[in-house]
Amino acid sequence: MSLLGQSKFQIHKGTLLITLPQQLLGIGGSSYLVFCENINVMLWLMASYISWVLIGVVGVGTFYHKYWAHKSFNTYWFIELIGTFLGILAGLGAPFFWVAVHMDHHHRYADRNSLDLHSPTKGFFNAYCGWQFKAFNLKSKTAKRLLRCGNFRLFSKYYYQIYWTVVLLLFLIHPYAPIFLIFLPGAIHFHVEGLVASFCHTKRWGYRNYETDDESVNILLLGWLTWGAAFHNNHHGAPRKCHNRLEPYEIDLSEIVLFLIPKCRDSWSEKLKIKS
Predict the structure, then answer these.
(1) How many structural domains are present in the chain?
(2) Which of 16, 120, 203, 207 is deepest in the core (most CB within 10 A)?
């Protein structure tokens, strides 16, 4: 079945096939191993943190979000491939699904009506994670255009196969590896996105640098802890900007990542004209 032919419920049910075991094995499994088994706790937890930075902050935050959804920068195909691959390992949905929810629901209707799927105007739990347990009509105008890009199309089509193949390979290397390198970091970023969606769209929790037509705010401590994700009003005020930092005391790791990776001069309009 093609991506465009999938029903709203089939796409969403498939996402939960990763989300539920991710939470159970990531949080439950790692907690059991840390407290009940004789393992090198600091080594495994440090590996989990590094993995979260790579798959969550870089993979989802920089590539799913800034690169694919907002087209904030352009880079070479092999950097695009690596970044998107890292994003897949966070287990938050195929690139097609994530971009559709973010661009064609959240940004287009932010806090204004029910088409913003994870707005706290429909309740804290709905914004945090409850929206993922509901069926909905997935709008996907932005994501459909991106299917012209080979890497986006490839990773969207084979998202589940790639994710579980990596899990299996890591398990064969070491039985604890998928728990600490995939499930726990993915579970952490799941809750990072839940915290941002709920607290950072409630005005009483933070401050605003931009007067936007939604409820977005920046939360300083959460922004530091999430490497920039919670400077959310900055993002809604300037969504095409390649990082969320505005003030000197705000930090966004994407700014450092984009300083390090090579960019190319090809425009996005040219990229989307070509079936790669």
Answers:
(1) 1
(2) 120
Parent domain of 117: 11-204
Strand partners, 218: 207, 231
CB 195 within 8 A of CB 170: no
Q: List per-residue pLDDT tens for the chain, 276 residues long.
A: 345 444 444 445 556 688 889 999 999 999 999 998 888 999 999 999 999 999 999 999 999 999 999 999 999 999 999 999 999 999 999 999 999 999 999 998 899 887 888 999 889 999 998 888 777 778 888 888 899 899 999 999 999 999 999 999 999 999 999 999 999 999 999 999 999 999 999 999 999 999 999 999 999 999 999 999 999 999 999 999 989 999 999 999 999 998 888 876 666 766 666 544
- pTM here is 0.90
CA distance 85 to 151: 9
Output DSSP code: residue 175. Answer: T
Residues with Cβ within 8 Å of 5's Cβ and at least 6 positions away in sequence, in order, are none
Altogether, the residues listed in the chain come to a count of 276
- CA dist list (Å): 221 to 21, 171, 205, 250, 255: 29, 35, 11, 10, 18
CB 88 within 8 A of CB 160: no
C-alpha span between 164 and 91 (Å, rounded)? 10
